[in-house]
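QA checklist item 7 of 12: single-chain prediction sanity check.
[x] sequence parsed
[x] length recorded as 181
[x] structure emitted
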Amino acid sequence: MQVRFGPGDLAHAGYTQDVSESGIYLQASIIYPPNTVLVLQIEYPDGALTVRGVVRWARDLPPAFKRSLRGGMGLEFVDATAARAAAAPQPEAPPPARSRKKGIPPEAAEYELEALPTRRRQVSTMAGNTFEVRETERVGAIYIRIFQLPLTDGSHEAAFREAFWTRQEADAAVRAFLKSR
């Protein structure tokens, strides 16, 4: 499973096949020293889970080996409830009642969405453009924001921003946006 991580943001990516109730083994090219607290976003097939963990041990590699091998870290989850959820992720919550699905989902400010667990993935189009797709669930709606990468102009303006009541509508909108680029 892919894991995005960092001390305060999700700036780095790594992989894991080893998640338990107490922690995770994370393979990555960026290694943090023991006692560093990291934010982890674990990408499960049915959604992402964001937890915090503290580095308990780290194995870095000499620069000559970093191209072909990855170092790793053992992290202990900070919150026991989040740890149980990481080891056995719960299925997604059932959709909200039909009466709530009518109309347009409520507006949400960017700071509100950034405070919630967000699934992030990078995709490239046939034309060679690269985008980051961010999916956040809030009040039963799925909020999609798509940013063109790299973000070199200092702007964090989304190229696409919309909310949907169903996963099917959200996925179709993302596909349509990427196809047009």
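[x] summary fact logged: The mean pLDDT is 80.
[ ] second reviewer sign-off
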